[in-house]
Amino acid sequence: MTKSCVSCGNRIASSLREASVRSWARQLCNQARYPIVYRLLAGLPICAGCLDALPVIGGPICQRCGRELEVGIATGTICHDCKLVTEETLVSNRSLLHYNEWGKSLLGLYKYRGDERLASFYGALLAITFFRYHDPTSFACITTVPLHSNRLHERGFNQVDLLAAGLSTAVGVPVQSLLQRTKETAKLSKQGGRTARQESMREAFAWTGDRGVSIPFGTCKKPYKILLVDDIFTTGSTLRSCASVLRAHLGAICEIYSLTIYR
Amino acid sequence: MRDYLLYLKQGKMSIQAYVTPCFEVDLMYWRDREGCQLHIMGKSPSLALVFSLREMINTHLQGLSGTGKSITDKALANLKQMITGYVHDVSHLYKREATGIESPGKEWFEWEESDHPSQEYGNSVDGIGECTGNSPSATYAQVLAGRSLLWEEVGTLLQKRGMADQDCTAVLQQMVLAGKAEWKPGIRLSMKKGWWRNRLELKCERCGSGSGDLELTVCHSCGQGCAYCTVCLGMGRSKCCTPYVLVSAPKVVSAVNKREQVRDVARLQWMGSYSKDQARAAEQARRFVASPRLGLDEFLIWAVCGAGKTELLFPSIAEALSAGGRVLIATPRKDVVLELAPRIQKVFPNARVIAVHGSSAQKWDDSDITIATTHQVMRYYRRFPLVVLDEADAFPYHNNLVLYRAVARAVQAGGKLLYLSATPPRYLQKRLIPSKRSFFIRTSSRTPLLSASHVLLPGRYHGSVLPVPDVVTVQGLHKRVQSNRPIAPLVEMVRSSLDNGRQVFLFVPRIDDVEKVLAYVQQLLPAHAPQMAGVHAADTLREEKVRAFRDRQYTLMVTTTILERGVTIPRSDVVVLGAEAPVFDEASLVQIAGRVGRSIDDTTGTVLFLQADRANAPKAAVKQICRMNQLAQKLRAQEERN
């Protein structure tokens, strides 16, 4: 069966894609990673036109939140927004794509309409991001931003868990569920403003990692890294809130990195 | 997580299995009625599984029905054992199908057997009967009548009507028991036993898609093995654990005091007049709608492009409204919905007219005349005594079994379905046009002008003939465009049209061709270059560009097939570049040729089909247009003689 493009629905002609797959692979990684990133890109269910049009973040980025540094939003290597954050719990965030109209509709299709077939596509994109910025051997585990149980029941699936599972198989780092959501917050996209978001995220998460976790976190003396996965980084309040819970439980010895698709 | 309970009801005559989300309602219901005995079998959170069990048990019990009247304890134990075995088999089959997904629990499907003792109800109470009138059940039935909705959609609808405060499960279950409503799992699950291996069969109850289009998942809503339908995903997720509620609308018997009001709704306020042909066709359609004959439930109005199809409908719609029913006008295209709604509202000023499409705010309103895209029709269930299907041969309705089913389901039992098309697909022609074929001689070219199930309108409303396309084969057509070499017939025709102040549609087969051909034509005719534009389905400026073309800001529009229907531009000509391409089939080319000469002050125009090599579709299109012209001429001659 010929696959069709996830974003425009047209038939995928692999012969047309070859050139753009190669050029993206060259741009996104160094030579050592080229084969693996090439294979991930080649496996994406997306047609040549849409692949060319992927709004990939390029150029200089903010060392903290991973956004592209356009003119006027930063001096130096850290953007103004990140400088305002007083208690930084995340070491860094990295994302692959700009969040534009295209991303909005496609992510909506996945999250709200519930088209789970997109999970493999997004999982591969996350894996590409991972190989672009990180080294797989350095992470102890992957963990995800949890959904509230009511929301999960309503939606029927956890979109981030599916992504993390895809990422985990691609990079070989195990997924551990360490957090749970204790507060049912309104949809982030329905809340206005940075401060409102930060306020609603305060104490929205709690530690649940003691149940059935195979990595002996407490006993480790060397600093270790945890990768936090989500679908989108908007103001960073969700991810920072998760990271602060993790650090409160594991001590300052752990370093929390985050990885998202959209920024 | 909601559990669904399966129980057996043993009445005097029969024994049957039932499913319920709230057993109390069923208890109450059966207590008020016949003397019966209820045996609870067990429960599960997976709705699809429970329904599948019910089906299995009912067929089993039917087979047994002859043997004895009452069911023994041994038989019950036997049934319970059967159920456990069945659940185990289904779990096993699901596991085989769902590769790469981890199961939520130990087994894919949970089944909790009940050791509840059977309950018996005396046969004394028989008098209470049904309470009608102001009961909540009646208002719910009224709101939900004629709709088929997923559970979430029921919630949305009730919220829109301000009835969301109470839980409607109990009321709905009452309606189901009374036979007023029906409910099913969104995806039906069944096990087919085979000689080689058993198979799991899944089917979407809403759109009818089979296993190939369904995705198996672990669902956090029911915590069981689940599946969702990818075909009708855009209308909400239809899942194994989502109840799908179907309520058919009751037949309207217009009461005496209501008659005055009904007549008012059906009042037609239209100043226009019909030509002789139109009047004949409209009358024929009206007679079809009015006829109480059973078995005659489909009718085709075949009217050429520019025959004034919409006006033909008015008498039929008025007829259906005055009988006290609702009318649905379905069409595959959203732009047609948007264009039609104000026109219909204008001629039926006292009727409530709503336009229903994906992003419409009126989706949940009640109305007399509903104008909807064919996708939205999926949410209706036996609601309308008259359904009109406009543009029956257009994408996405054409060749889409899901939508065929949806439209057929929106018709009330004994209702009428009216097809409207300029180029009816072959299957409709075969079904509705009786062929005058004698036993020995084939005279297939003679199409009758009218019969009980169709009417053919071969001439335009202004009486002029349809412009016949010129088909020109140009060697190396596409190479010439690639290398910017001029194509003589194209240049000549476009130049003369533009110089005469006419507008030109230039149709191309693919989206990629739009830019290329636009640049090519601009380079050939630099004088007119600024007034040229290109448009395709994915174009974000699509609506603005089409509007600008209507306003004559652009004089030449390079387009894909999106403008093949629904667009009327006076004083325009048409070129098809690459008419041999498979996207241009006969129907599409006839529609394209039909863009020309539609207005009464300009009834002629040029239609040019350029093909790279000889193809069948352009030839067939020309043949069809000529045939229509011949028929129209013959009809006119006949009229003059009379």
Q: How is the biggest beta sheet of chain B arranged?
A: 8 strands, mixed
* Global shape of chain A: globular
Which structural class matches the secondary elements of chain A?
alpha/beta
Low-confidence stretches of chain A: none
Q: Structural class, from helix and strand content of chain B?
A: alpha/beta
Tell me the β content of chain A: 15-25%
Strand runs of chain A, count: 8
Helicity level of chain A: 25-40%
Q: How many angstroms separate the termini of chain B?
A: 75 Å
CATH architecture assignment of the largest domain in chain A = 3-Layer(aba) Sandwich
Strand content of chain B is: 15-25%
In round numbers, the mean pLDDT of chain B is 86
Write out the strand line-up for the largest beta sheet of chain A, numbering strands in chain order.
3-8-7-4
How many structural units, i.e. domains of chain A?
2
Strand order in the sheet with the most strands of chain B: 15-16-14-17-18-13-20-19
Quaternary structure annotation = heterodimer
